[in-house]
């Protein structure tokens, strides 16, 4: 199935448009029905037209060429969009059945992340961005709320799932080849003076390792805390923390304080492991590293299993009505040239 979310501009456009159901000149009527709820033709058209804007194909000729290059038809896009809009209906009904509710703090976090990705400096520029994409913060929040429920439903459906050695091996081979994992320890304090004293202690050591051990001993006396974060593959780290740790090799400690929300952090890399071209046996890994890989493999399996469940639910419960004529995105698509097809096939092959 064609994925509409390609590139940041399109990601933003489709994310904002998913529930923007007003202001469309498309044909009125019902595009599909899922579990007793209707998906309007207007909503489908709005979604596709916003996607079209995101890929800079407002002109019909450019839009037709774009579809030809992707080997798609307007009906393909309509069906894909209907599935996209049907998914929240299925998820909401399952969430109600399981007693799940939206985690509002997570929605807030995602809103802030979107603002950061758009580099908005104040509320006025944020509102301007929302207006530019033809939506509102309320609709964006609804979209994120649906995604949050979907994640919770997926987790519940596979609750108790554990990764087998085969699952872990497959995950390492598919996603971790060439990746260097780092085993991290962290000292942190709410007081700048205490944290600076720990940094001075580290720098006074004969080696970073010796300085770190001395700082660890002093931490309890200085109202500071030690956190053994484990392997950075699955540790809960902010973007700034990831950037700080990336500077360090095995046996190295922070040379400056990282300040976040009034707390000061120092890091030390206890160990590193680079995953080889051929995935190792899980039993050969450090115990904590094996657990980290297993946790990541479960997350991957959860997403895969949840996605299969969702598609099955939609297929079994949806009725899609025939595509009406006169829709603004319904253009005649020229046949893609053999050269274009070869180039697309080559790109697909490279991704495998």
Structural commentary:
- Helix 8 (165-176) crosses helix 12 (287-317).
- By secondary structure, the protein is α+β, with helices and mostly antiparallel strands.
- Residues 1-14 and 16-26 have low confidence and may be disordered.
- It contains 13 helices and seven strands.
- The two termini are 16 Å apart.
- The strands form two sheets. It has a four-stranded antiparallel beta sheet.
- It has helices at residues 8-17, 41-54, 60-69, 74-98, 104-118, 123-132, 137-157, 165-176, 192-204, 208-219, 239-246, 287-317, 338-351, and strands at 30-34, 37-40, 180-189, 225-231, 258-260, 263-274, 318-320.
- It is elongated, with a radius of gyration of 25 Å.
Structure characteristics:
4-stranded antiparallel beta sheet; 352 residues
Tell me the number of helical segments per DSSP (H or I, 4 or more residues long): 13
Q: How does the overall form come out from the CA principal axes?
A: elongated
Low-confidence stretches are 1-14, 16-26
Order of helices and strands: HEEHHHHHHHEHHEHEEHEH
Strands of the widest sheet, in order across it, are: 4-3-6-5
Amino- and carboxy-terminal Cα gap? 16 Å
Strand content: 5-15%
Helices and strands: which structural class? alpha+beta
- Helix share, percent: 55-70%
Q: Compute the gyration radius: what is it?
A: 25 Å
Mean pLDDT: 86
The counted number of beta strands is: 7
Task: Sketch the major β-sheet.
Answer: 4 strands, antiparallel
């Amino acid at each position: 199935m064609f994925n509409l979310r390609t590139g940041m501009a399109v990601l933003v456009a489709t994310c904002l448009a998913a529930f923007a159901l007003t202001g469309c000149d498309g044909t009125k009527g019902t595009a599909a029905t899922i579990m007793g709820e209707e998906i309007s033709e207007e909503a489908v058209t709005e979604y596709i037209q916003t996607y079209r804007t995101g890929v800079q194909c407002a002109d019909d000729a450019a839009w037709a060429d774009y579809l030809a290059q992707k080997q798609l038809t307007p009906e393909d896009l309509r069906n894909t969009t209907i599935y996209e809009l049907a998914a929240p209906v299925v998820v909401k009904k399952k969430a109600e059945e399981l007693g799940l509710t939206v985690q509002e703090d997570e929605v807030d976090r995602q809103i802030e992340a979107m603002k950061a990705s758009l580099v908005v400096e104040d509320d006025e520029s944020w509102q301007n961005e929302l207006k530019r994409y033809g939506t509102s913060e309320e609709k964006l929040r609804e979209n994120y709320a649906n995604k949050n429920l979907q994640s919770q439903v997926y987790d519940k459906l596979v609750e108790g799932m554990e990764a087998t050695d085969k699952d872990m091996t497959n995950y390492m081979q598919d996603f971790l080849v060439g990746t260097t994992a780092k085993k991290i320890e962290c000292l942190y304090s709410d007081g700048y003076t205490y944290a600076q004293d720990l940094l001075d202690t580290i720098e006074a050591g004969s080696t970073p390792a010796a300085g770190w051990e001395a700082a660890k001993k002093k931490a309890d006396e200085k109202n500071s805390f030690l956190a053994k974060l484990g392997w950075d593959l699955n540790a809960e780290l902010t973007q700034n923390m990831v950037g700080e740790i990336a500077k360090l090799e095995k046996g190295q400690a922070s040379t400056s304080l990282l300040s976040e929300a009034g707390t000061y952090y120092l890091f030390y890399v206890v160990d590193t492991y680079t995953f080889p071209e051929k995935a190792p046996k899980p039993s050969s890994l450090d115990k904590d590293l094996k657990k980290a890989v297993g946790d990541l493999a479960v997350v991957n399996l959860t997403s895969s299993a949840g996605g299969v469940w969702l598609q099955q639910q939609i297929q079994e419960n949806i009725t899609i009505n025939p595509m009406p004529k006169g829709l603004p995105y319904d253009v005649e698509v020229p046949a893609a040239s053999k050269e274009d097809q070869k180039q697309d096939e080559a790109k697909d092959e490279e991704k495998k």
